[in-house]
Amino acid sequence: MTVAATSILASRIADTACAAGRFTLADGQVLDGYFDEYRLAADPQLLHDVADAMAALIPQDAEVLAGIELGGVPLTVALSAATGLPAAFLRRLPKGYGSRRQIEGARVEGRRVVLVDDVVRSWCSC
């Protein structure tokens, strides 16, 4: 991806997902701007374009993409579609009923896994 294309994509992400306002995080930190990953995930074309850009960052020896609940899941699904790699989904705690699994989807044991999360705290300048 060229520098110009990266800059355009970054602007699209900021326009879509950066929210101005006062936000208190779980750890008590207060921010004046917030990156709302769900806004990015809700825009199918932007999510597709972000996944395509992220695909170039995946190591050649990766075997599975693993998304951390909840925000990492849509990014992982899109990245899986862009790369053809299988996806797994990680809960913070095992499911309390049914399968009682903490990891769903593709098998991760003994495989090279790329973790996908959604945490961005200081990037947005709304």
Describe the structure.
Helix 1 (3-17) crosses helix 3 (44-55) and helix 3 packs across helix 4. Helices cover 35% and strands 23% of the residues. By secondary structure, the chain is an alpha/beta fold. The chain has four helices and six strands. The two termini are 25 Å apart. The protein has helices at residues 3-17, 37-41, 44-55, 72-83; strands at residues 18-24, 30-35, 64-68, 87-90, 103-105, 113-116. Strand 3, helix 4 (72-83) and strand 4 form a beta-alpha-beta unit. It is flat, with a radius of gyration of 16 Å. The strands form two sheets. A four-stranded mixed β-sheet has the order 5-4-3-6, covered by helices on one side. Strands 1-2 form a two-stranded antiparallel sheet.
Average pLDDT metric: 90
Q: Structural class of the helices, strands and pairings?
A: alpha/beta
**Strands, count:** 6
Radius of gyration: 16 Å
In N-to-C order, the SSE pattern is HEEHHEHEEE
Instruction: Estimate the global geometry from the Cα principal axes.
Output: flat
Instruction: Strand order, main sheet: write it out.
Output: 5-4-3-6
Question: β content, as a range?
Answer: 15-25%
Low-confidence stretches: none
Q: Report the total helices.
A: 4
Largest sheet: 4 strands, mixed
The amount of helix comes to 25-40%
